Structures are given as structure tokens and as C-alpha cells.
Records
---
Amino acid sequence: MTLHVPKDDMALSNTPVLSEASEPNGMKAVRFKASPPLPSYLVALAVGRFDAVDAGHVGPTPVRVIVPRGKSREAADAVTAIPPLLKLLEDYFGIPYPYEKLDSVVMPISDFAMENAGLITYAESSLLADPARDTIVHRRELAGICAHEMAHQWVGDLVTTAWWNDTWLNEGFATWMERKIPGQWRPEWHLDVSVVKARIGAMQRDQLASARSIRQPIEGNDDIANAFDDITYEKGAAVIEMFERWIGPEKFREGVQLYLKQHAWGNATASDFEAAISSVAGKDIAPVFSSFLDQAGVPEVSAALKCTAKPALHLAQKRSLPIGSQAKPQTWEIPVCVAYEADGAVHHQCSVLAEAQADMELADAQTCPAWLLPNDREAGYYQVAYEGDLLKNALSDRGSHLTVAERVGVLGDVELSVGTGETRASVALGLVPVFSKDSAPQVVQAAANIAGLLKTESVPGDLREKGARFIRQEFGEQAMALGWLAKPGENEDTRLLRQKLVPFVASVGDQKELVQTAEKLALGWLKNRKTITPEMLGALLDTAAEFGDRDLFNLLRTAAIQEHDHALREELLDALGSFRKPELARKALDLLFSKDFDSRESFYPLLLGPLAYAETRDVPFDFVKQHLDPLLKLLPREVGEDYAAVLPQVGGGFCDAKRRDELDSFFRDRVKDYTGGPRALAQTLEGIDLCISARKTLGPELTAFLNKY
Ligand SMILES: [Zn+2]
């Protein structure tokens, strides 16, 4: 391949440059080496005014970060992260990096990354950071995104799926690696906890009757648009995590390596992957795998200890369904792995639950276990229903015999099971005081998530103040001690807890002092940008806006218009979408038509931000009804990026039948013209139905809890 480009530009492709020659009229011819076999979607060209930042070599591979001219200093984090992550990936796959060079290039107008062989493209906000505004979260996300795209160089590029229905294997696998590999590089980041949190998040979405299965036929544009969703990425990753736990990490890695060696420089299917894993595992994993790939939904495994004879665990499965769900029942073949303490030692054991119910004899227990965790390492893709004293014993001594990730997993399970009606809200809320002061900030946050039940639609309006008081009592002291501003010498865990807990207590706990401080700090920051640590800026501006008035709105709008930095403009637009006063939420939506903002930046925060509060949740739907035609003209409308398909989500905050029907009748025919729209509408309507049902059941429970409080 040869490119003819202006002589001052840098030209890049998948392979190294072979030669460059001057041409007339200020042009040059850049000739590239021939590439190994590549699918067409991975061919990439980049031409522009770039600087190349050298990141050294990994083995024989030269590694560079390519930035818009003059931005080299913003590449420091990328230069630090990319080489060691690449080395760890080579070790994992047991195959050297497959291409001759690795360039990571910033694409200024893009908001996603793409794994082109040897020339990975990234959004500027992901790959670069102004050193003065760098944050912990950004550094971790950068490592995750880079690990993801680099993992694709093997899974996706070296071996490419035969058809789009197996996109999940590329994306699920790369998503799995985006925590696993940075976790090896920086163990102090505790990314095993992030793995568990991501699984619980995926399960919440997968409980919907309208959720897709991981693997689905791709027959048209709607399928393509829907295929790149959280189910593909996060459920895919969670199912791979479960299989690694079940097969064992070493065997599983052997299977991955075998799959890559067998199909290098060619196409493969998920069946090829299953065959490779099965052959090293010495058992056929295909039926177990396909029960998770080819049907949507989350299994719920109930576990009960039976200690009358030889200790055993009685297991039963059903589909985990939110209260009021209309989804049909189904079963899975579930790899269930448990951990338990018996006779003074901790034991681990796995078996496959293929029937509706079965007994699992506890091989190493002579006496009844002191405690048992029905989801060892919290790696299984199933929700646990704890029978009898199982939950109490698992969490005895504040769960000190469990890892942090396991404590977070158990609390996440409890939170989910309130929504399915398995656990009473009062039991879940009763765990909050036990874990609200846990030594691990991630566990404190899991407890805060359970307390978040008190901000749902299910709490009657007149009891919200009592709910806020509960949150202040459990978390107020910690939040006040943390304050809005970082203190010298704090570790990253503490700083990350501040980011979640302080705005939670300020907003949901209605902590006046924290709100007033936020307002003061926000006004100060608008005058002097150095006053707030970058990681707290977003949360602080959002909180100030939530309680803020028209003056603050005008100041934020002016600041957003004048801001040239993409990341800061994003924070300011988020804040503009966070006002709780309905007239200000309406004013914010008008900014969608302002020439001052790119609609790709302003669309999500301004349209969906107001759904967070009861006061403003009608505003976006009313706005869309009034302005549909100009909106459709304004928004990007491409397959895979049709913003119109997001419009039905304006009903995401509704919890009553009247508004539901209005939404349905407004969008029912229209969504057929939005790529991916019909499923988006179905999911929003289902969410409203479930909210209505949850309120009926949980309302009285939460009322009883708060009245006693
Ligand atoms: Zn990917």
C-alpha cells in the first residue's frame, strides 16, 4: 500500500513504513510493508499532524504512542502502561505479539477505541491526560482500555471470528482481560473486586425479559446495533470468568493458547474455542457453555446445608426474575463452585448443576461446615439464595474469613435478591450497619449500594426524609471526615471511596453541610481552576448543580461554552444535566440545539441526566415530544451509532401506568425507523413495568422498616 500525503503530515498504517519519497506540489509518497492476512475491518490508515512518542521495545516490537502535534507530555500514562501490559499479554497467550510494530494513535473526533492490527486507535480522552488533571480513575481506565485493545491483537486479529454472531467471544474475552492483565500489573488496584462488581451489574441488566442472549444470529442492522451491548461485553466476560474458575486458571489458559495456535492467521467460531478448552480440560464443556451463551437470563441457585448424615449441600435452580417479571422460566447447566470451612480447614469444591435440583456431597467435611460460600471467589454467573443460616454464617464475624471481593459479591447478591423478592428489604438493610464501617472501602460502598434502596421509587415520598436520616447515620460521619477535598498522603482506596460516598451522603442523605460546601467549592473553581482535585470535580459540580439555582446554571453554561478541553467540557455538561429544578432541566435541554456544543457530547448528559430525580423525570419526554423532528435532524444516525435509538430511554424514570402507555404509543411505530430502536423501547417499557411491581411489593416493606427507624 502506498499513500500520497502532504509532506508535513505523518502517515501510518498497520505495518511499518518501507520507504518515503518526495513528490511534486508539497506531497510525499509513503510506502508500507505488506501485511500478514487481515480481515478488512482491521485495516487502518492515519494521516495527520502527529508527534510520535517512543515507548521503547517489548521483545523485538517497537512501541509508540502517536499524539496530535504538541501533546507529547499528555502521553505519559500511556507510555507507562502499554509496554508492561503488552508483555503480560504475551506471557498469558504464550505467543509473541503477532505484528511488526505497535502504534497507539489518538483519533480526535472518535469516542471509542478500535483494535486495528498494529495501529490501535483511541479516543483522545481515553489515551491522553493533561498531567495537571490526571486522575486515579483515568489511569485505571486507560490501563483497562489498552489491555482490552491489545488483547484483541490475539483474540480478534490473529484469530478472527468467522461471523458477527461470535463477536461476543472477541469482546467478552477482551473485556475479561481488561481487568485481569492490569490486575497482574498493579495488584494494589484490587481489580478482582471490579470483576465481581461488573458481574453483578451485568446480572441486573440480564434479568430483564427483553435482554438478548450473548450469542445471537445477526440477520440485519438492528442485530448489529444491538450486538455491541453490555451483554456481549460484560456478561461475556463474566461467563469466561466462571469457566476459568471451574476449569482452573492454568488449564483454561492452556485451552486459550491451543485455540490461538490452531487457528492463527485464520477464522474460527465459538465451537472451535469450546473444543480447545474441552480437549485440555478432559471434559466436554460445550453443553454447559451453550446454556449460558444461547439463552438470556440469570440463574438463581438456592443452597441449603444438610448435616443430618454426611454433610451435603442441597442445590436447586430457577430463573432469577425481578418482582413482577413476565419472563418464562428456564434452566441451565451451571458450574457451581463452593468454599467452606469444616474440621478446621477451608475447602473448595465444584460440580455441575444440570438438573432442577441436586445434592452436592461435601467431600472434605466430616462435620457440618462452620460457614459455606455457595459461589467461591464470587466467580460464578448465578445469584445465590441462601437458605437457613447460610447467609448469617457466611457473614459471621463480619465476613472476615471472606476476601474483599467475596464480601462485595455476597452483599451484591443480597441487593439483587431484594429485587427478586427472595430477601426481605429489612434483612438487607439490616446488613448496612454491619458493613458500613468495614475496613475495605469497596465493602463500605457495597453497603451504601444496599442503602440506596431507600432512594428508589418504592419509598413513599413522606418517608424519604427518614431514609435520608438512615443514610446520614450510617455513612455521615465517614463522609464528613473524608470531605470533598483530598488530603496529602491518602491512599488510592480512600480517594476512590470519597468519590462515591461523599456525593451519595450529600445527595441521597441530604447532608446540608456537604451540599453547601460543594456549592462554595464549585463557585470557587469556576474562578480558579486549581482549587479542586480533578477526581472530585465531576461529583462536586453535579452535587452543586443538583441543589443549585439559575445563577449557577448560567455560570456553568458560560464555562462550558468557553472550555476547549474535551474532558472538562464533559464534566460541565454533566453538571448542566444535573439540575433538580425542572425549569433549569428544561433550559439545559435547549442547549442541545445550541451551536456551542457538539450534540455527540451534549446528548447523553442533557437528555438522560434529569431522569435521576422525581422532580425532573418528566422533562426529557416532554422535550422529545415537542422537538422530535429537529432532534432527528441534529443527531448522528449511523448503524451502530444511531442516537435516535436512545430516545425511548427518556421514559427510564417512569414508574406509573399512565406515563408508560404515553411512552409506548408515542414511540411504538417510530422506533422502527431507529436502528436498534425496538429493543431499546421494549427494555424501557419493561423497566417501567418492573418499577411498578417493585413499588407494590417493596413499598410496604420499606415503609415498615423506616417507620420503626
Ligand atoms: Zn473490544
---
Amino acid sequence: MSRVAVVGAGTMGSGIAHVFAQHGWDTLLVDTVPAALDRARQSIAANLDRQVKKGGLTPDQKAAALGRLVTAATLDGGNPPAELVVEAATEHRETKFQIFRDLDRAAPPGAILATNTSSISITAIAAQTARPGLVIGMHFMNPVPVMPLVEIIRGLETTDATTARTVEIATALGKTPVEVRDAPGFVSNRVLMPMINEAIFCVMEGVATPESVDTVMKLGMNHPLGPLALADLIGLDVCLAILEVLHRDLGDDKYRPCPLLRTMVAAGRLGRKSGRGFFDYGR
Ligand SMILES: NC(=O)c1ccc[n+]([C@@H]2O[C@H](COP(=O)([O-])OP(=O)(O)OC[C@H]3O[C@@H](n4cnc5c(N)ncnc54)[C@H](O)[C@@H]3O)[C@@H](O)[C@H]2O)c1
């Protein structure tokens, strides 16, 4: 039986744990905030239910997936992970650096340490450990059970064996891995975040309402979700954190986060997870 630990039980960590547990992995989900673990277990159960209703899973498969999921406040609070840790904690450089220093001590010596970071350098994260060859970016998309892409990002020291095994695991989870180089924002957020930022500038400058901006992009560009609804789904705090990394690490003012985005985050309007962002989610 394969074992994985997922560190961080927010939007992404819960989705990542869901997919691993569904595909037969013994899954330990770790978060320092107990309420996050409770919310994650509830949302995983609700999302598995939805798959059962749609005919994608049997009730037995749902029960088996939930049975493979253990939650804990620390990595050694559950079964020790044998092979892989996926870090999906807050998008904050120092937080991730500390987690990787801790993981390097706590995880078995041969374990791959993957990060779901959206923008932070894999090479810099790997340098926090004594096993940089085993550190890699495994960038899932939101919502994880639905989205087929996993960006696989090699740090400078990531070995061919680590990359090959990570690609193999992503494929076994039913995902399509795409390898990209370690550059700020990789491909996904390097392209996506400037579009979201520009949409926010349009709102701030009074060019159009959030509804109109999103309607233009949905009906005009065939996007299934407008950029502002997508920003609300991602989390406005996460968008701001990614733009700050792009701005600082690429050194180009075209990545400057829109002041309205900063204001929204300061006000706690973080999108779906707080009930309100550019749109209202009725909580
Ligand atoms: N939200 C998205 O759409 C999206 C998409 C792809 C990648 N990501 C990346 O995934 C990661 C997580 O994003 P999210 O949206 O799930 O964030 P989130 O804010 O929803 O969840 C983060 C979780 O990490 C926990 N955490 C913080 N420090 C921790 C620690 N030291 N140990 C254990 N848990 C800790 C928090 O309690 C929280 O529950 C970030 O790196 C983000 O950039 C996000």
C-alpha cells in the first residue's frame, strides 16, 4: 500500500488528499489548525458524495476512500508516510521554508518532498533540505478532483528519478503531468495572474463592473469562468501572494498587484472561502 502525507488542509490540501485517498493511497492530512482538518474532512466527504451521485464512484469506493484518510496536527500524528509528502500550506516563503526543514527531519530518508506552491522557487525550497534531489514541484489545479493538469517543476538539483516517479504518480492519479522549468509562477500563474490582475484594474478604474468584466471574458473569449470569479475561487489572498512573488522575482512592474486587490485582502474579502470577494457567496 502506498502512503502519502499532505501538509496543509485548506482548499488545495483537502483536494489533493481526496484524490490520493480515492486512488488507493493511505493518506495522512496534516494541518496546524484543527478546524481546517474538520472542514477538509467534511468537504472531502461532500465531494465524494457528488462523485457517487454522478455515477463516477460506487458508495463502497467512497467509503474506502474515506477509510484511507487520517487527519493529524503533526506529521508523526498518524501513520508514517513511506514514499511521498505533498506540501500545500499557505503561500508564504518563510512558512514553506520552515515546513521543508521540518519535513527533511521527519520524513523517511528516501521520501520525495513535493510542494504545491503556485509561485515560490522550487530550488530555494529544496535548498532548505539535505535532500534537494528529492524535492520537486507538484502543482495541482483547483478544484483538484476535477482539473486534469499537474505542472511538474524540477528544481536545479531535482534528479531524473524523482521527476520520473512524480510523473508516474500524477499519471496514476488520473492526471496529465506537464514538465516545466523552475521560474517564478511557472507557466500557469505567469500567464493567469497578469490577466486576473488586469481584470481587477478594470474594476478599480471603473472601466466595467465585475459582472461585465467576467461576461466579456466568458462570452468573448470562451472562458468557462470569468477572471474575477476564478480569482474568488483561487482565493484573493493567494492571488496577491503569487503576484508579489512574480513582481519581486521577475523585477518587472507589469506584475505590480492592483491596489484594489490589496484592499480586498486587507478587508478580509478573500473570495469563496470567506463568503465574499468580487462576488457574494451568501455566507
Ligand atoms: N487556491 C488555489 O487555487 C491554488 C491552486 C494551486 C496551488 N495553490 C497553492 O497551494 C497552496 C495552498 O493553497 P490553498 O489555497 O489551499 O491555501 P489555504 O489558505 O486554503 O490553506 C492553507 C492551509 O495551510 C495550513 N498551514 C499553514 N501553515 C502550516 C504549517 N506550518 N503546517 C501545516 N499546515 C499549515 C493553514 O492552516 C491552512 O489550512 C499554496 O502554496 C497555494 O499557492 C493554490
